[in-house]
Amino acid sequence: MELKKISDGLSVSGQVHPEDMAKLARRGFRAVICNRPDGEAADQPTAEEIETAAKAAGLEFRYLPVTPGIVTEETAAAFGQALIDLPGPVFGYCRTGTRTTTLWSLAMAKEKSVVDILAATKAAGYDMSGVARRIANGGKTPTDSAEDARFDVVIVGGGAAGIAAASSLKSRKPDLEIAIIDPADIHYYQPGWTMVGAGVFDAKTTAKTMGSLIPRGVHWIKSAVAAFEPDNNAVILDGCRVVKYERLVVCPGLKLDWTAVDGLVDTLGKNGVTSNYRYDLAPYTWKLVREMRGGKAIFTQPPMPIKCAGAPQKAMYLSASHWETAGVLGNVDIHFMNAGGVLFGVKDYVPALEEYVERYNAHLDFFHNLVAIDGQAKTATFEIIKPDTEPTRVTVDFDMIHVTPPQKAPDFIAVSPLADAAGWVDVDQATLRHKTYDNIWSLGDVMNAPNAKTAAAARMQAPIVADNIAADIDGKGPQSAYNGYGSCPLTVEKGKIVLAEFGYGGVLLPSFPKWMLDGTKATRKAWFLKEQILPPVYWKAMLRGKEWMIKPEKVSAK
After folding, report:
1. Whole-angstrom distance, CA of residue 60 vs CA of residue 29
2. Which of 33, 100, 161, 449 is 20 to 30 Å apart from 385, CA to CA?
3. Statement to judge: residues 290 and 390 lie in one domain
4. Residue 317 backbone dihedrals phi, psi, to 5 degrees
5. Would residue 54 count as lying in a domain?
6. What is the pLDDT of residue 333?
7. pLDDT mean across residues, the chain
């Protein structure tokens, strides 16, 4: 008997035997629900036998048989009522536990979101995506199984990747019916927030309305995605609306998991706790930096993957640069507390960065992962996990702390059939096509190719996805391959940048010849690029399908 916990009130398993009832009682269960009809197998104990043993062990018993493949609304409602009536925690079983889990999913549909239900059941080892549409419909079978809308291409996500992909695809196939699904009203130029936190950009310049950026001729469905049905070529929206597609592009970005650090949500934006990873907090970073005349300043970096892996230390360098200019740098104790073991993942850029670490007298605390923060006490707790050593914890005080939150795939992606074991969309790293579903592609932060998660990466990926979808429509195989290109302009001081450009395996992929711009050195040219060139390239080129300085590699013949 292998128990699988679905919720605090319910655990399930496959077929059990009378002798298991006493074991369940000893483990604290108070009631049993049987969802397996008698006579499904020759070696199967009857419900009556289980009931007798359950009562002998002091457990209440309820028999709600479910024929395989036929989970009715009435039985789901009865199951939900049983969970209310019976003392908990409750144990339920059928042949494998799937029918019991399905009943729970439908019974909870009015209380919990589709994502929460799919997450709970997936964690227990049960895939409920097949009943996602019923869950989204409050546990009831939709009266109309036809789609609410159908498009040639559906794009989930209206961020940098989604709008760029739509524009690039529309430029290749103008007659395609394309829809972007995204509930957001505002689209943000997130690479600019580092500059906002340093007083270089005004936050308002990094935001535009979503409606102003949706490409002409592309439909905008302003809704959140509840689930995917890739076998039916369908996306289920909140409210059980169904959008069908011929081809699907998945690029909703990633999730900033602020709640993963105990106490962080309660103190963000006050008590000296800030983050450039949020639009409304980046100006607070600049306020703290301007006002700081001395004390301890901490900059954190969580375990990978994160978007723009250089951003945590960019905040440190720009803050230190201001303190240096203001003549107070010697009064500030700077710490870069990194969950990883290196300053930057591509070694060619490390020497230039180390020069600035030394210049600003910053302390590098590797293998330190922020796990808790007390804003009022101005203390932060880090877990230290060094190789081949037992984890320890240390609590340090601070006057200012810039937090980079832990990051993961969005919940509705992680629980979907599209995800790998870690929750990211599972793609071929060259073609960006899904490994299982050949009419699905993914790009941007949400997919699992081993590249840096940056806007520059999405800018390169969008034409590749567009090329390969266009080729697929024409009956051809993949035409373009992604080499892992990403760019991270490391702002080491106000006026100079180390322009890191690299691909898979840390291979350097500079956009300019070395005589023109040496990316491994801090240069003013790179700063000019970041400050003056890249924002208009983003708004006026990338999001409009103008693929300046982008030449996707061709797929090599096998």
Report:
1. 10
2. 449
3. yes
4. -60, -45
5. yes
6. 97
7. 93
Kindly state whether residues 95 and 29 are assigned to the same domain: yes
Q: Residue 179 burial (CB < 10 Å; 0-12/13-18/19+)?
A: buried
State in Å, rounded, how far the first CA of the chain is from the last one. Answer: 49
Tell me whether residue 358 is exposed, middle or buried, using C-beta atoms within 10 angstroms of its C-beta: 0 to 12, 13 to 18, 19 or more.
exposed
- Count of domains forming the chain: 3
Residue tagged 């203001």 (tokens) = 326
Last residue of some domain: 452, 480, 508?
A: 480
* Radius of gyration of the chain, Cα coordinates, nearest whole angstrom: 27
Query: Are 300 and 404 a contacting pair, CB within 8 Å?
Result: yes
State the catalytic residues: 308, 488
135: DSSP letter: H
pLDDT given at position 378 = 97
C-alpha to C-alpha distance for 262 and 278, rounded to whole angstroms: 18
List of residues 6+ apart from 275 with CB closer than 8 A: 268, 281, 282, 285, 402, 403, 404, 405
Angle subtended at Cα 52 by Cα 46 and Cα 57, rounded to the nearest 5 degrees: 130
Q: Give the pLDDT of residue 1.
A: 78
- Burial class (CB within 10 angstroms; exposed 0-12, middle 13-18, buried 19+) of 258: middle
| Helix (H/G/I), strand (E/B), else coil: 447 | strand
| CATH code, domain with 127 | 3.90.190.10
DSSP string, 359-413: HTT-EEEETEEEEEEETTTTEEEEEE--TTS--EEEEEE-SEEEPPPPEE--HHH
CA 112/CA 108 separation, integer angstroms: 6
Q: Cα dihedral sign for 525, 528, 534, 540?
A: negative
User: Which segments in the chain show pLDDT lower than 70?
Assistant: 143-147, 557-558
240: how many CB neighbours lie within 10 A of its CB?
21
Segments in 268-310 forming alpha helices (H): 282-291
Taken in order 471, 469, 537, 276, the sign of the CA dihedral is negative
List of E strands, 465-535: 480-481, 486-493, 496-502, 522-523
What pLDDT is attached to residue 297?
Answer: 98
Range of the domain at 264: 258-407
Shared-domain flag, residues 174 and 125: no
In this prediction, residue 448 carries a pLDDT of 96
Instruction: Mention every residue, 6+ apart, whose C-beta is less than 8 A from residue 219.
Output: 151, 177, 178, 179, 180
Cβ count near 172 (within 10 Å) = 16
Write a three-state SS string for 459-485.
HHHHHHHHHHHHHHHCCCCCCEECCCC
Cα–Cα–Cα angle for 153, 154, 156, rounded to 5 degrees: 145
pLDDT at residue 136, rounded to an integer:
87
User: Residue 8, exposed/middle/buried by CB under 10 A (0-12, 13-18, 19+)?
Assistant: exposed
